[in-house]
Amino acid sequence: MDFDFSEDQAAILSGLEQLISSLNIEAPKDAVFSAYSQALDNELTEGGFLDITQQEGFGLLDGALIVERLARLPVSVEAAASVLIAPAFLEDTTRRPVAILQGKLTKPARFLPMAKTLLVDTDDDLLRIEIPEGAVEEVETLFAYPYGCLKNPKALSSVSLGAGQLAKFRRRWRIAIAVEAAGLMQSALDLVLEHVKTRQQFGRPIGSFQAIQHRLVMAAELGQAVRWLAFKAAWSDDEGDAAIAATFAQDSTPKFVTDLHQFCGAMGLTLEFPLHHWTYRLRALLGELGGSSGQAIAAADAVWGSKNV
Amino acid sequence: MSESLDDFRARARSWLQENVPEHGSPLEGPESRDYALAWQKRQFEGGWAGLTWPAAYGGKDLSVLQQIVWFEEYARAKAPSTHNALFVGMNHAGPTLIACGSDAQKAFHLPKIMKGEVIWCQGFSEPNAGSDLASLRTKGVVDGDELVVNGQKIWSSYADIGDYQELLIRTDPDSSRHHGLSWVICDMKTPGITVRPIKTMAGPAKYAEVFYDNVRISLSNIVGGLNNGWKTAMATLGFERGTASLALQISLGLRVEELIAANTDAVTGETLMDLRADAAALRAMSYQFAIKSETGPVGSEGSMIRLYFAELAKRVASASIDIFGIAAPDVLAEHGLGFDYFDSYSETIAGGTAEIQRNIIAERVLGLPRGSR
User: If you average pLDDT over residues A284-298, what whole number do you get?
Assistant: First the structure.
């Protein structure tokens, strides 16, 4: 087993770092609602980072590395669906950003305000819908991602991709949830570790108190576990791996987020401290695709065939 | 013949049915102040303000059991959250003045609080004195019959719309830690005060930073004695850590019942059963504590209730989003579950962090040796 980056992977990630640093991306100071970076989206598209999985010699794991890195940024960009999901189902992957939805077409979806394509899991079919200009109404949420609803779903034509595609669609969606969560958790943890090293109370850094150290160690363990389960699922593209990675990511999030905010005190609750840029998004991911109980049932089906028990 | 609890309950229920406002409070700014004061005024005029406060100052001198019944009916009627701009006046400043204030202070301030004429805010924490409150540095120097205050407070809820502040300052320059502090009533219109609201991740500007530049406060505004402020402040925090959140706790239990009714998922159902058990346990603990507090001073068990409530409130807020989904109208609405969820993070921070509460419980309730700070 080789856990080191290949030369190609290292080169891609290095290129991505250069792109990110060239944009001088900073955390928005007063954003409660979505902070989407169109500039980043443009650069990623131009640099070919979003179609990595379609390039010769590269696969889902390479795409996952890119998505994970982008999730660590304090702004959002639609990458997970474009990189990890859409290439398996769309002939024209240039019609992006791609929004994904499960259930009724009237439900709000992440990235729908800027999406050009919507993929919908209706429970008995996978639909592709091209989104024309003006078809979406933006929905304000506290969850940092841009959300939108179709104004009149019946007026839009959809293409059936077939119920046979649903298992793969959900599998890729689960991988995307886990990979994105891993990046969000890493940045949130890094920020809090820095805070507890410098914030002093009772004449010493609060990070020197064992009560805080122990819980931060547990948070770091959760973050690492989510990360490696996500990468394993991206590497294997296996039903069970994907469901377990998503279950673990969604199950871990509440405790992880709670502790991180706790250690930043009241400052961590303000828009002046950037932690919310990651925790908003982690909370949003927590509800995707039926939440952790939905993933857990999928994991049981995939690994143990529970439906047959 | 005194009114039975059942009759009292019926009367409370009937009044609340007639009087609870149709719409919730604006979340911030002058509108939230007007809303809170109007609601308090209506309760006062209906005879439902200051139920356990002394009759000598306009209160009703009722029993804790009657207070509990009122809160039960209040929660059931979905009356405005008690965690609003009136919270500090009704749950901190008022009870502190009753316990530690002079007759003149009580006579002047308690009726104003009960009648819905004033908003109070808190001024305890400082940028470098949060959990370590005793390290606060805002100072007051005695000059004739006045204190001259200089310094800075932070996380002062409602300071931007407040009339009075419970201000904790260092009045003995040679003192350190808990010694040499004073708890002072600060009129927020006094020259030299600057307030900067702070927006939270839940959306509204729930907190504020307050700066004091040669603010002159009469010595007659000191509550509990000059340089005796730590004792007064602990009384204040004792109220917050005890029964202040009783109405909210009862609401929380009712919220869990609503979630159980709305839930269709077996896995979430298990979580909800845990929450229901926790809510029932919390309610029993709180009632026991409240009734005990009527007959004499109570210990630090209030910290257990405060902590239990805070952590349960966060879990209920999180479960609410799980059940309705992140983009449900109930989650996105102005007073929706999304706001509740992000706002609930403050529960384990305000009024002493969960870590401080655990220290208190470990040392004063469980009798464990004090650890190094």
Answer: 85
Residue A219: which CATH number?
A: 1.20.140.10
Q: Which two tokens stand for residue A30?
A: 């007063």
Is A127 domain-assigned? no
Report whether pLDDT(B358) > 60.
Answer: yes
B353 contacts on A by Cβ (under 8 Å): 262, 265
Assess A139–B contact: CB distance below 8 Å, yes or no: yes
Rounded distance between C-alpha atoms, residue A92 and residue A75, angstroms:
26
- In this complex, is the C-beta atom of A208 within 8 Å of any C-beta atom belonging to chain B? no
Is it the case that residue B26 has pLDDT exceeding 60?
A: yes
Chain A residues within an 8 Å CB radius of B268: 291, 293
In a domain, A207, yes or no: yes
Question: Are the beta carbons of A47 and A250 closer than 8 angstroms?
Answer: no
Q: For A197-256, what is each residue's pLDDT tens digit?
A: 999 999 999 999 999 999 999 999 999 999 999 999 999 999 999 999 999 999 999 899
Residue A22's alpha-carbon distances to A43, A106, A150, B4, in angstroms, are 10, 39, 35, 74
Confidence of residue A308 (pLDDT cuts 50, 70, 90): very low
- For an interface test with A, the pick among B342, B344, B363 (most A C-beta atoms closer than 10 Å) comes out as B342
Whole-number percent of chain B with pLDDT over 70: 98
User: What range does the domain containing A183 cover?
Assistant: 165-308
Q: Confirm or reject contact between A269 and chain B (CB < 8 A).
A: yes
Contacts of B199 in chain A (CB under 8 A): 30, 32, 270-272
Domains delineated in chain B: 5-119 (1.10.540.10), 121-227 (2.40.110.10), 242-365 (1.20.140.10)
Residue A124 lies in a domain: no
Is the Cβ pair A262, B354 closer than 8 Å? Answer: yes
* Binary contact (A266, B327; C-beta < 8 A): no
For residue A282, what are the CA distances in angstroms to A102, A257, A259? 19, 8, 13
State the virtual CA torsion across B24, B29, B31, B32 in degrees, nearest 10. 40
Residue of chain B minimizing CA distance to A146: B327
